[in-house]
Amino acid sequence: MDLPLLKSEIKALIVQELNLQGRDPASIQDDAQLFGSSQDGRAPSLGLDSLDALQLAMSVEERYGVRIPEGPEARSIFASVTSIATYVAAQKPSG
Amino acid sequence: MAGERIWVTGVGLVTALGNDVEATWSRLVAGDRGLAPLDLFDTTAQRAAIVASVPRAHELVPRGGPPRRWSRTTGFAWKAAADAMAHAGVRGQAPRRVGLVVGGTTGGMFETEALLGELHVDPARTDSLVEMISQPLSATVDRLAEVLGPFCRLRTLCSACSSGANAFAVGALWLLSGEVDVVVAGGSDGHCRLTLSGFNALGAIDPEPCRPFDVRRRGLNLGEGAGFAVLERASSVRARGGRPVAELAGWGVGAEAHHITNPEPSGGAAARVIARALRRAGLSPGDLDYVNAHGTGTPLNDSMEAAALRLALGSDLERITVSSSKGQVGHMLGAAGAVEGILSALAVERQVVPPTMGLEEPDDACRLVHVQRHGRPARVRAALSNSFGFGGLDTVLVFTEPELGPPPAAGQRRVVITGAATLSPRGLDDGTSAAALVDGSLAGAPAAVAGRIDFDLAPHIDPVRGRRLDRPARLGVVVAARSLAEAQATGRPLDPAEVGIVLGTAFGSLDPSAAFIHRIFEKGPRFASPAEFPNLVPSSPVGHVSIYLGLRGPTFATPDLATSGESAVIQGIELVASGDGEVVVAGAVEEASELVERILLFLYQGGPSDEMAGPRRPRSEGAAAVVLEAEAHADARGARTLAHVDAVRSWTEGSPPSIAGPRLVEGARVVLAQEGIDAGALLDGTGWASAPRTSVSPVAGEHEAIGATALAAAVALVHRGGASEVLVLGTTRGRGHAITLRAPTARAIPPTR
Description:
- The complex is a heterodimer.
- Chain A is mostly helical.
- Helices cover 49% and strands 0% of the residues of chain A.
- Chain A has helices spanning 3-17, 50-64, 72-77, 81-91.
- Chain B folds into two domains: 7-400, Thiolase/Chalcone synthase (Peroxisomal Thiolase, Chain A, domain 1), CATH 3.40.47.10; 415-507 and 559-742, Peroxisomal Thiolase, Chain A, domain 1.
- In chain B, helix 6 packs across helix 12.
């Protein structure tokens, strides 16, 4: 799969599904922390919470036909846009 | 002077353990678990479907075709309420004023969700519309009034999982105010696809039987059923030689203002509500022997609740027994608070503590005195019952042996209004400019329009903090914030921790519910929208407003159809008058809804129209709120009072309104919520008969929040000096409410007849 295209689709999905009104999807950095509070010395987190994680997981499953595992594994998949895209691409290697 | 004690004199239960009190209680204590795979509808595509279901439910629901088909929810309520009334011997006594208050979340959703899903895609499906309109949350109260009435006062409440508990608290307020002699109070809820899919989408359900407080707990199991109690003042019970089950010694109602689904993790917010309940009961942790926990079995709730209990009860928690009944009856949502309150009362009556089934290895984070495997005899002087609902709507009830603690404080406090706001085709008005809604001499009032108001809400709502707010919540934030701003324009600012909020909303979120259901049917439950689900319950707008504005006082919704606004304002007045709230924002929100418009239009034009009365304009959108404040509180902070609340009168079919006249006919005005009210019939023979009458509808439009709009406009009318006293009237189908306001200066003269 085309990873850069996947990443930009996922950014758009984040903005749309989580109702981040007025936010330009392109402004979300590939490796920016999505969930939890910002850590010192790192780029600011998007500050999403557990309800957002559930919504995003459902949307990614629906959009790409992949299965997101429940529990701690999901947390590492959703760490950043890059990790989500990597996971999706790995589930759907062709086209 | 001491106030009256509130006694529980009758109880009724319908649960997975049995359809009456004795069956439920004996099986509860024995440790039976009423959990099994759900068989009410197809669950093959659901993540988890172990539930607690009412046995032989079909026996409890009377048969009948539309429009009078009874929902499961109403059937359960009927059995439990009838049992409670029989237990207390209510019917057999001299006629008394009996009130009915019912809490719930789903109403007739099971019966109508399939129809909703179809209507979402096929608007032409009119054959089912009549049935739709007979199943809103308030239908239970209507049906019970028909078969168990007459009742002189009616109310429907929704505060998510604390709805049933709030019904008891409100019932107690009615008794303390002297407005009723007996209260039938409770909650009811039945299984439906929307609820199961929604909680599964949140990952909140344990696919196995749940394990409250256990280290391996994974979630809750949904339950269904009803719990109803009869409450009376102790003096009436003694006068007829009756005996109570237990005393309802206190209650605490408050909001966490944290998150729409997750509890405030430190437990501090819940601990404050527990402390409030104990304070009202005049008890300290040393008097407490048992806690019936909310104890859902979710990882987040149980550790938060243990922390809250530690904060509130301190070292006494090492002695006090704690158990959760949800491992046996499931999480009964709107019924939970009422059922568990009754179980707590029975623990006091019978000196037995029920167990926490499903608990094998207690989590270190939940180190409490647990009861496992089965119940046991214990000395129970006083018991707490906790209910923590979505949106952080918490209620704690205190049941005791009769006369354990001091009697409640007596006296009703005077209530004033310090702020107001309306949202209408005029835009946003406050407690001065809203007079234009009723004063034709104020130029520039556009005519009412159907559908959405042309008013940009965006500048009023922070896009980041407000991203989860749907339209009703946004309308609520705007009017609540504006009215609170006005209340703080003079005097010292308010502390949001002591401000509560009650919002009326007639139909809840019908369009989003239809979309949610349609998605489940079309794509399967796995693709139900987790973020959307919490917004579907009628208490969602008020929960969101509480979170957005940080309000932590008593918080709930009053889904009373056409008089939702009136009910909310009256509910707010009751809370402040009784001392349960220092400041309560009360109002209503109603969004434009194609679905509702279609249903109502169809009903009026073609189908049986006995549910609605009078001609209808196109339905529009609207919102309004007033800030109700204890007079002493407003004076103490030096705030300007816009109007005084003078009197409240509510009536039902068959009991006349008997509205007291104005002090001076000169300067008296009548404001009608709905245009079509037959005010002449209601006011003939009173001093209001000749007072000028106006309705807010020509300007504000027609919608179910109009009662709040009328009240806010009346406040402005008084404040501007356009009237010294105003009577606000709102009616629907033979029931109605009259609220009298007067100007701060018109004090000394007593009202005329």
